[in-house]
Design goal:
By secondary structure, the chain is mainly α. It is built from 4 helices and no strands. Helix 2 runs antiparallel to helix 3.
């Protein structure tokens, strides 16, 4: 993580929006801070233990080796668990957003019109571009209102 990344994090509106998760970018900062704290503790403990007497100084070196290694392992495990957790969260969020199709009523109506248009048979236009076909007079056209058929004329 460079200085430009830190400037981008702290000076941009990323810090104030809750749409993105900021913590995966801060895990390396946490790891570096933990390493710096371990280094400061070990140097301080070394000087303090040798300041008392030589025997305490030797025990201080042993304490630094044991507790420092333990702290380093715990720090590494915690940072890796955080990264795995955030990676799993990112994967689940991506999966949910891909499975959820954001459609509105207009999109659904448009899809329904396209489906209806595909179901109806398409009549080819003539070569000159005339769109109307000749109506057939042999069949009686029925409308939604049922009208009685024409009355037959009596034969005399």
């Amino acid at each position: 993580m460079t200085l430009d990344d830190l400037k981008k994090i702290f000076l941009s509106p990323t810090l104030f929006r809750l749409e993105t998760i900021l913590s995966p970018r801060l895990v390396p900062v946490l790891y570096a801070t933990g390493l710096a704290a371990l280094l400061l503790w070990s140097v301080g403990h070394l000087f303090v233990s040798f300041g008392r007497n030589f025997g305490d100084g030797l025990w201080g070196i042993l304490e630094i080796a044991v507790y420092g290694a333990l702290f380093l392992i715990v720090l590494r495990i915690v940072c890796e668990v955080l990264l795995v957790f955030f990676k799993a969260n990112e994967t689940v969020t991506r999966t949910v957003s891909l499975s959820r199709v954001p459609t509105s009523l207009i999109d659904e109506v448009r899809d329904a019109i396209h489906d209806i248009a595909e179901d109806e048979p398409y009549e080819d236009e003539t070569s000159e571009g005339a769109a109307a076909a000749e109506p057939t007079t042999s069949a009686v056209r029925r409308t939604a209102r049922r009208t009685p058929p024409p009355a037959a004329k009596p034969d005399i």
